[in-house]
Amino acid sequence: MSSSTVATPRDVNSAQASAGKASPEIIQRLIDQVAGFNLFVVPEGGNTSGGNGTGLVLSEALHRFDVTLQPPTSQGLQATNIFGESVGKVDIRWFMVPDAFVARPDRQPPATQLDPSISQRFVMQETTFSFGDGRDGFRTFGTGRTFPMLVGNESRVVVGGIGNLTEGFGKFRGHEGNYTICGDLTPDGFKGNVLVRIQDNNGNLRTQSELPPIQPQGDPDPQTTYLLWTAQKGTGSDQENSASFGPDGQLRGLNIPTQLKLVELDFAASNGFQARDIKVGEVIGREIGFGRGSVPGATPAGTALSPFLFEGVARYSFFDSSGRTAGAITTNVLEGRRFDMQLPDAPTAPGLRFGFFGPILYGQGFFKGCEGMFYGATASVFNPPPGDHIITHFYMARINDPQGKFRAIFAREQGWA
Amino acid sequence: MNTQSVSPPSPSGQPSASSLPDVNAQIYPFDMVLAMLDETANFSMFAIPVSGYDEKASLTPANPSDWFGLSGGYGIDLLSELHRFEAIVDARSDGVRASQAVGQSTGKFHCLCLFSPADFKWNTRQTPPPMIFDPWRSQRFVMQECEATFGEKTSCKCYGIGRTFPLMVNGRHVLMAAAVANVMSGTGKFEGREGTLICTGTITPQLGFMGNVNLRVRDNEDNIVSENDLPPIEAIQNPDRDNTFLELRLLKKNKHVKTVFGPPPGGSLVSLVTPSEMRSVRYSYIGGGRGPRTHMEIGQVLGPMSATVFFDLGAPPGTAETPVPFTTQELYTFTAPGGDTVGTISCGVVEGISFGLKFPQAPGQPGVRFAGFGPIQGGTGVFAGAQGMLTVNSLIGISPHALSLMHCLHLIDPNHRYRQGTGGY
Q1: Would B8 be classed as within a structural domain?
Q2: How many structural domains compose chain B?
Q3: Which of A206, A373, A402, B52 is 20 to 30 A away from residue B214, measured at CA?
């Protein structure tokens, strides 16, 4: 999924001049200066309030969460999901909102009742993440949507949402970043994953040292499996972006292919917040996707108060060891939020960061019958075709998986099993 | 839904009582008009998605490297097998049930459903602006490249509009879809025919369409409609365990039943209150090498139905390029043979299109061909809590107001409350 779409975020000429100074390889390194990590939020069973079913106002526990995808085979695709030790807390003020409500940090939404039988929007009016003893963390604002779903025999209110960092504290002071949530609204609060991407140009969020190993805890949601991978541009003609034109000859969006790759994200908070560099692995598949701006004629700029809205459709095909497609999912991005981003070492490069979510529409091959959500967090430098497009997506599929078909077993002493 | 013989509306835009035409007058005898309306071939079909078609489906088959065309993004490329279908309704004091059978395959149904903005109007020459598919929202779509084929020689191409309807059924998210289309051209026995197609069903997990498709094609030359029984249906294993369809034939109880104008809803719209009688019906058809044949067999009386139809009296008769929209509010009252009410269903057409209808044998006799769909709003008695969809596929005369109505009540029925037997055939 790309938000690059039709609009050029900044002046093309200056962007191309900038690209002339910094090679694609350098730009790739710059956008990958990032603290990318996964959290799992679990309700603590404490006070939940929010005005009689109009929202959530509470504190919840943050846990380390590791998702490691194994290389696909002709039989399937599996990932370990390790729910780890407590790493902090998150303070939530989320409220349901009417569909047409324009959310802003300074605008209190009208009281809107949660209806678990329909899809509704909600605003994450304030979500504050605190790590360790609370010195490091960040405050955020964002919006999301509910999606009623049946997982196994259980009716759930699944949610997706995108948050933007509005203020960092401790180690996070001065950083910009965003995250995407996906999980369930339960009577006790939100339960699910937060996929975080914080730009870390000065490197203070990352360490080259080994992190303490994750301390596995009981699985809070054995009926779902998370699959994480990354996507980047490869070389060759099959990786070139192209314009999509409607029957009237008008540009309607962009076709953007990428290579899908294994990725490892990790962090710990026992000695203050520390993340590892993202570790990108082998190519495991291909993405073909179409993206466009959601609002025709909207300004291409994306700001904290007014992000650029985008949407699209994509198919993620996974190759077995012989290079044949063994499974694929087709997904829609129903909500994408894009923010302009400046890279200090390439200040004129048209940098972007964004988050997005939507449903898995259907699966093929080993994904046949698959249901769930798809979401991600991304950074890129985009120049319209034929200019350079450098990108690193963190992609997550949250699969409704009561049979455990997509779940690999983590054997601590023996490595992968 | 124009009568072609009405006075202009009053200066206020609202038709006055004195300006309203007498729809019950008889330009031609009632029975003759009814017989002409029934010179129509009725195809009751069941669509089952073609297995594996999701691998090939594309909105842009001529340009496969344009991924706008990924099926499921901005539209759905549907291909279903069309099967013969019967749903014969029986109303008794202990309930209303359909004996439902899906039969042999008789052809295919293909269509590109392109999602559109809610206000996109019927336009056979324009592709709608892109609108991304959102399975949790009710969305309007346009049916392009819509074709029903019967064997190698007979087919009809249609253009239409539809809507998705997300529902929660026992905690499960279900996406219903209904659509109405006009026959734009045909081959074989359908060449040069007027007709209307209507469908209601569900979008399956692999993005196929499964459900009922009813097609009515005018047959003035009497070479599709058969007076004789056709070979019986060859039932296959039940492909859809969650839905029951009540197929109905509606007409006026007799020629003395009057249609009246109801309270005007506003603007240039009028309302027409039409009482009718529901009957069970067996719609049979065969494909066959010599082209399709149809036969209709009328069954028991099921009870009264009252429909209030809202339409623009001042609009010119609908055409293939510019049909006239209408909506309805309807009450279906099912009665046991003794006359006691067993249950009622309230529903109404939210997307309806109508076309002027002429009769070669009776010049000057106005008529209307119309079809539409809308969700079930509620029910009483055995239908308490009912969810589902109404489709109507109709031909009527105006002055006299004779009716030939093919309706279907599509009920979400995972517990088989409305199904005769336990789901097998």
Answers
A1: no
A2: 1
A3: B52
Beta bridge partners of A291: A254, A312
Q: CB atoms < 10 A from the CB of B321, how many? A: 12
In a domain, B11, yes or no: no
Q: Which residues contact B194 (CB under 8 A, 6 or more apart)?
A: B183, B217, B218, B355, B357, B369
Q: Three-class SS of residue A283?
A: strand
Cα separation, A148 vs B129, whole angstroms? 28
> How far apart are the two ends of chain A, measured CA to CA in Å?
32
Would you say residue A347 has pLDDT above 50? yes
B54 interface with A at CB cutoff 8 Å: yes
DSSP A384: -
Detail the DSSP E strand segments found in B60-171: 75-92, 95-116, 140-150, 154-169
* Chain B residues in contact with A244 (beta carbon < 8 A): 66-68
Domain range spanning residue B145? 18-412
Alpha-carbon span B329 to B316, nearest angstrom: 23
pLDDT band at A44 (very low <50, low <70, confident <90, very high): confident
**Polymer length of chain B:** 425
Tokens 């061909």 sit at which residue?
B369
CA B404 to CA B391: how far, in whole Å? 14
Q: What is the pLDDT of residue A5?
A: 44
Whether B127 and chain A come into contact, CB under 8 Å, resolves to: yes
Q: What ipTM, to 2 d.p.?
A: 0.93
Cis-peptide, bond into residue B400, ω within 30° of zero: yes
Q: Which one of A313, A316, A333 makes the best mutation probe of the B interface by having the most chain B beta carbons within 10 Å? A: A313
The sign of the torsion formed by the CA atoms of A112, A113, A118, A122 equals: positive
Amino acid present at A358: G
HEC sequence for A40-86: EEEECCCCCECCCCCEEEEEEEEEEEEEEECCCCCCCCCEEEEEEEE
Q: How many CB pairs under 8 A join A and B?
A: 93
Residues 6 or more apart in contact with residue B49 via CB below 8 angstroms: B78, B79, B80, B81, B204, B206, B208, B209, B210
Kindly tell me the burial class for residue A416, based on how many C-beta atoms sit within 10 Å of its own C-beta (0-12, 13-18, 19 or more): exposed
> pLDDT tens across B279-331, in order?
999 999 998 778 899 999 999 999 999 999 999 988 999 999 999 999 999 99
Burial B77-90 (b: 16+ CB within 10 A, else e): bbbbbbbbbbbbbe
Taking residue A389's Cβ as centre, other Cβ atoms within 10 Å add up to: 22
Backbone angles phi, psi at B259, to 5 degrees: -100, 140
Q: CA neighbours within 13 Å on the CB side: how many for A163?
A: 30
| CB spacing of B127 vs A359 below 8 angstroms | no
Q: Specify which residues A18 forms β-bridges with.
A: none
DSSP tag of B422: S
> Residue B42's closest CA among B215, B266, B189?
B215
Phi, psi of A13, rounded to the nearest 5 degrees: -65, -45
pLDDT, tens digit, for every residue of B37-76?
A: 999 999 999 999 999 999 999 999 999 999 999 999 999 9
The residue ranges of every structural domain in chain A are 12-202+216-406
Q: Is residue B417 part of a domain?
A: no
Do residue A361 and residue B72 have CB atoms under 8 angstroms apart? yes
B425 lies in a domain? Answer: no
Tokens 């939530």 sit at which residue? A92
Q: Say yes or no for a CB contact (<8 Å) between B67 and A313.
A: yes
Residue spans of alpha helices (H) in A214-304: none
SS3 B398: coil
pLDDT tens, residue by residue, B136-169: 999 999 999 999 999 888 999 999 999 999 999 9
- Asked if B134's CB is within 8 angstroms of A332's CB, the reply is yes
Residues 6+ apart with CB under 8 A from A10: A340, A348, A350
**3-state secondary structure at position A133:** coil
